[in-house]
From TrEMBL:
First and last residue of the signal peptide: none
Entry keywords, A to Z: Oxidoreductase
Primary localisation category: endoplasmic reticulum
Pfam families listed in its UniProt record: adh_short
Subcellular location: Endoplasmic reticulum
Protein name: SDR family NAD(P)-dependent oxidoreductase
GO MF terms, alphabetically ordered: oxidoreductase activity
Family assignment from sequence similarity: Belongs to the short-chain dehydrogenases/reductases (SDR) family.
PANTHER family membership: RH59310P
Tagged with keyword Transferase: no
Amino acid sequence: MSASSVTPTALVTGASSGIGAVYAERLAARGHDLLLVARDQQRLDALAADLQARHGINVEVLSADLAQATDLARVEQRLRDDQSIGVLVNNAGIAMNGTLADATAAQTDSLVALNIVAVTRLASAAAAQFGKAGRGTIINIASVVALAPEMFNAVYSASKAYVLSLTQTLHGELKEKNVQVQAVLPGVTRTEIWERSGLDVTQIDPQMVMEAGEMVDAALAGLDSGEVVSIPSLPDAADWQAFIKARDALRPNLSRSSAAARYK
């Protein structure tokens, strides 16, 4: 993480369970005070009490539904105004089962509001505050389906591809301002998101399912080593570099004054 003479407060969204709760635990162990954001006030209070008792750090909870404009604006403004915050873990998100054709407008709108709009607004607020301060860390939780969209639901996969693209662009915008930006691309991780989306994780090949603690520990190791994109289950980082190299090879021909001969 970006160095600071004072360990900054970390704001973690979706902090009441799963990946968010593990990030809260790991960051508390690193000495960060915490601002925990989620909808479930009771779970947040219990987690805050536990982390304060075990790690001797200060924990504030903020009950908010980031899919709701009023709640999102409240958290966004806190990020812009509170200069003690120097870490954002943009974790809150939902999944959706089934095809796009079968999804209701309400389901689609809710996913886009949380997985795209909220992530963007909070990342923007953090970028403004951290960039001005010349320090900070933004962690955006994406998914491996950003690279393999055919594996899962269309809207969810597209939302995570957006998060990956947003993070890579933010890295370019903030790298000269001493702000570290990371996209984390987990595979299937054992959390409540599956049950809430109507999927049974026990029906997935157990060789594909990672525990949340192991996933977050790998992601933080990637952050510490300076990775912009961390894929916790990927054995060889050279495979990702080869993917980027292949993508970059397309760049000279992505925009030209005439169509390629193969289309004529």
